[in-house]
Amino acid sequence: MNNALLASALGLSLVCVLGWWRQCRTGNAGHADVIWAFGTGAASLFYLLVGDGHVLNRLLAVLLIGVWSLRLGWYIYQRLHGKPEDSRYRAMREALGARINLFHFFFFQAQGLLAWLFALPAWVIAQHSAVVSVPAMIAGVLVGVLALVGESLADRQLQAFRSNPANQGTTCRRGLWRYSRHPNYFFEWLHWFS
Q1: Is 54:130 a contact under the CB 8 Å cutoff?
Q2: Given its phi and psi angles, is residue 180 left (phi above 0), alpha (psi -120 to 50 degrees) or beta?
Q3: Which of 74, 99, 130 is the last residue of a domain?
Q4: How many domains are there within the chain?
Q5: pLDDT tens digits for range 130-186
Q6: Statement to judge: residues 146 and 65 lie in one domain
Q7: Helices (H) and strands (E) in the chain — how many of each?
Q8: Of 194, 67, 190, which is closest to residue 141 (Cα–Cα)?
Q9: Residue from 106, 146, 119, 132 nearest 47 by CA
Q10: Cβ contacts of residue 34 below 8 Å, gap of 6+?
Q11: Rounded to an integer, what distance in angstroms lies between the CA atom of residue 60 and that of residue 177?
Q12: Domain co-membership, 6 together with 72
């Protein structure tokens, strides 16, 4: 299984080099976020497919992590595709000037490292040969589904709020956003505890 850790680290690093190269050509580093979301999911799925842990544990983890990765990666892709570079990356580009490509090389590698680290719980599950107790399994799946639904709802509410030009320059305080400054992050955090 340690070979799986090395293989995923190398694979993520290579994908990040390709992402960096694309950033050099396009002048837009926004796809680093997409690489992180899909990379975390891909590494997790790889561990769960090659692992020899209990099949039911791995199947449930594949479903929860796979849906999370596809949803978040696609959401970020749709939000960024065909648009100017995200203001965070544009500010970095302006501040660093000619050094930006070197900085982005390490930045993209850091995204790969974070994806690798976020996938480590899947590696642990992939090795765990004992079946998790039924109550713990049900609780984990329910919390995971609640988190996915909550994060999707929060993202959808924010997207609808931002699409209204009258809301430009204001803070969303509708729906789940009425209760928390970042409900999408709360549900993201909750998902990783499932």
Answers
A1: yes
A2: beta
A3: 130
A4: 2
A5: 877 889 889 999 999 999 999 999 999 999 999 999 998 898 898 888 888 888 889
A6: no
A7: 8, 0
A8: 194
A9: 119
A10: 73, 76, 77, 80
A11: 30
A12: yes
51-75 pLDDT, tens digit per residue, is 988 888 888 888 899 899 999 999 9
Domain boundary among 79, 108, 130: 130
- What are 53's two structure tokens? 């842990």
DSSP annotation of 82 reads T
CA separation for the pair 192, 185 (Å, rounded): 11
pTM for this predicted structure: 0.85
Asked whether 123 and 1 are in contact (CB, 8 A), the reply is yes
> How far is CA 37 from its chain centroid?
3
Range of the domain at 44: 1-130
Q: Which two tokens stand for residue 143?
A: 């919390």
Closest among 20, 1, 8 to 109, alpha carbons compared: 20
Domain identity same for 32 and 12: yes
Residue 47: which residues within 8 A CB-CB, separation 6 or more? Answer: 1, 4, 8, 119, 122, 123, 125, 126
CB 129 within 8 A of CB 54: yes
Q: Which of 24, 78, 16, 17 is nearest to 42 (CA)?
A: 16
Query: Which stretches of the chain are assigned E, i.e. beta strand?
Result: none
